[in-house]
Amino acid sequence: YGKAIVALESTVITHGLPHPTNLKVATRLEEIIREEGAVPATIALLDGNIRIGLCRDELKRISKPESNAIKVSRRDLVSCLVEKRAGGTTVAATMWIAQKAGIRIFATGGIGGVHRGGENTMDVSADLTELSRTPETQSVGVIVLDKNPNFPGFFCPRTSLKAPYHTDSLEKAIDILLLSTRMGLSNGTLIACPLPKVNEWPEKKI
Questions:
Q1: In angstroms, rounded to a whole number, what is the distance separating the alpha carbons of residues 142 and 166?
Q2: Which CATH superfamily is domain 1-133 in?
Q3: Could you give the CA distance from residue 165 to residue 167 in angstroms, rounded to a whole number?
Q4: Fewer CB within 10 Å: N-end or C-end of the chain?
Q5: Cα(110)–Cα(82) distance, rounded to whole angstroms?
């Protein structure tokens, strides 16, 4: 198409939000990317295949509880494909697939962490580990896209943790990505964007 392609994960659809809110959010995210002049590519597993860029019917399919979609991290890719099950890809699996497909930009609502009840389920995210090695490096650049250097949380605009670099200029963030590519630095770069003020929650409440 001659346009930028933006990868999107699908566990937010299969596991993150209830139906039909999940479908509405997924559809709106794709619309926003199109409005900005790029091409959305929601990634998921269906019928033994990796799907990069879901059509409307496929989005509807994985959004429904009866799809019985499983949560697919990188470790689960092969078994899910062999069993031909529907799978919502996590950040870790999505970025691995996107990188293999030559897609360099990936948007998501959040990464990493130990999920609630993780001491019982052992549901520990592989996102940060994957980001550190996709594509094959142990050096992850971190940029906060804000005037404030503090790293944002999920629902609070900033935490007490400070990023090594911050800027409120999207152009500068893009320049960093482009220069990194030209210099042959293969590390992934995490760009963290605080929530709009209207959506934020107090950190103490969280």
A1: 8
A2: Indigoidine synthase domain (3.40.1790.10)
A3: 7
A4: N
A5: 29
pLDDT given for residue 121 in this prediction: 60
CA distances from 15 to 64, 152, 183, 195 (A): 10, 23, 38, 21
The span from the CA of 111 to the CA of 108, in Å, is: 7
Angstrom distance (rounded) from CA 175 to CA 167 = 12
Task: Note the pLDDT tens digit of each residue in 136-153.
Answer: 434 678 899 999 999 898
**101-126 tens-digit pLDDT:** 999 999 988 776 665 665 566 566 66
Decide: 134 and 99 in contact? Cβ < 8 Å: yes
pTM attached to this predicted model: 0.76
Task: Give the N- to C-terminal CA distance of the chain in Å, as an integer.
Answer: 42
In this model, does residue 42 exceed pLDDT 70? yes
Q: Which residue has the higher pLDDT, 158 or 147?
A: 147
Are 127 and 74 in contact by the 8 Å Cβ rule? The answer is: no
Residues 80 and 70 sit within 8 Å (Cβ to Cβ): yes
Residue 177 makes CB contacts below 8 A (sequence gap 6+) with 104, 189
DSSP reduced 3-state for 108: coil
